[in-house]
Write a structure and sequence with these properties.
CATH class of the largest domain: Alpha Beta
Bound molecules: beta-D-galactopyranose
Strand order of the largest sheet: 12-11-13-14-21-20-19-16-17
Oligomer: single chain
Strand content: 15-25%
Largest sheet: 9 strands, mixed
Helix content: 25-40%
CATH superfamily of the largest domain: Glycosidases
CATH topology of the largest domain: TIM Barrel
Number of helices: 18
Length: 638
Amino acid sequence: MIDHFLIGCCYYPEHWDENSLTSDLDRIKSLGFNTVRMGEFSWSMYESEEGRYDFSLLERAVEYAGKLGIDVILGTPTAAPPKWLTDKYPEVLCVDANGNTMQHGSRQHNNYTSKIYLKYCAAITEAMAKCFCKYNNVIGWQIDNELNCHRSESYAKTDDEAFREWLEKKYKTIENLNECMGLRFWSMEYNSFSQISCPRPTPAYRNPSFMTDYYLFLSDSAVRYASVQAKILKKYMPDAFVTHNGYFENLDYKKLTDECLDILAFDSYPSFSEQNGKGRSVEAGYRLALTHGCCEKFLVLEQQAGPGGQNSYLVPTPLPGQIRLWTYQSIAHGAVSMLYFRYRTALFGAEQLWYGIYDHDLEENYRSREIRQISEELSRVGDLFIANRQHNDVAFYYDYHNICANKTESFAPDDMWYIHTGLNDLNIHADFIYSYEDMKKYKVVILSHIAIADETLAEKVREFADNGGIVIISSRSGTKDIYDRYYPQKAPGVFSEAAGCSALWFTSLPASEEQNVLYGGKTYSVKEYCEVMQPSAGTVVGTYTDGFCRGKPAIVKNGNIYYIGFYVDSGELYRDIIANHIDVPELPGSNTEEYVLGDYKMYLNYGEAPVDFECFDLLTEKNITQIPPFGVVMLKKD
Ligand code: GAL
């Protein structure tokens, strides 16, 4: 569907004097861009009164972009309902857990479940699609904008109704719901579905099964909301791709992609996330891998191109080199587009301080010059990335149901994050693989805290290991059924037989208590939680070194299956286990990454110091002896 690399920016013609439309697009063209994204958020301009549509400004922009050979991705404006609509139908507004109804004056104040809102979304989407289907340069549509970005829960009356319907569809009878959720506990049983509402504040802890369902419901509501628009867009423009930009809470992006999208998109704002060394956004890397897990090739529809903030925060400016570094980081994970946010910094509005490629004054600056360099490079090599993406040997088993269930657990739900990002630091890039996907294309599969599991998964894991795959299972996996209830057996429940062991007992570890494990002659630290294992068919390969657990089994190996009876806060142990089974090449320096993309290799230096490295660099077309600070080089393999 996308046969060339898309490079461009987000452009908002409605924020500027109409007379600057052509000069803006000329300048966008001069940046070497072939794509702009426009249109999301401007509902009050497109439909200032109910049913009176006016897309003329957007049409002029699309038309002129077409003349310049620039393609357009249009956004539907449904993340910002106009005042006339919310006044006429207050039920479309979202409500927080304390009952406060969100009001007009910002964005994302709609809910996803109001049938009236869905009707109006369908109408504006259809009006736009009808208007723009005649423009050949409209190549794609973005549904709404960043679902769940500012809030991912809603407690409106329509949400209660939709939640009840969702539960009734799932459980059929109220008796079954009471039974499956274990609502006898603390007298929570219901007599009918009509008594149920979304989980508003309570003095003590909620029922975990109920909460897991609520989180699943939130995601399904967002997917259903998006599907209404997707169907209309596909009807009018079957050849244009439909996309949506993530990655936020309470949304199963795999399901969204499978049910509504041709291609998923990621919005990359590395300065928001935790930094590991100044140039590296660990979190962005993790989210890029998650995005790839949902959609092999994906779009980046927004990448931070300046410092920025809204009223209450201000993130730092990308240092020279970082915009380029982040661009190639996304590409290495599978991005086939790079649109910078935004063309020029707005003079007004809530994002006056979100700096784009250009500042308020529209002068060239170090960021615009860096982006010109990137465009030039990508005009030569960009299309290579359409076909090539790194093949990873390692995958994490990923299951959205477990993600939801983990939200109500206080025990180390971040284990997967620590392991994945830790492995990444040590040059093991790992994919995320979903329950219904084939494990066979990987050499190693990690099940990190997959509490909800059944015999079918246990069998799949066993078969994978029997055929030579390496499996690493971490604590408390396999212990719960689909309704988030414990199985009446020891951890790792359904995996006990395959793992050849079970947990005799466990303890949580207060921060003050140190615990370590000795494995292969090295010690590794334990985080928060540990289980004392009892092998059955398996062999003990790691033991605890401290306190009451000292000398007791911590890691058991049964054939190709390792069971790790504790949580970690680094990827070191997993790396050392994996390195026993696959080759892990050395990196040219600390804080660097290597990617193999078909016949090419790419090296990224996240550090502020240069790294010695000799090659002919295809990006700059020069022989180099060092990768500069925040630098990227690309070379032909061998
Ligand atoms: C994104 C959003 C944009 C803009 C940008 C900068 O999350 O999609 O509309 O708000 O952040 O804050």
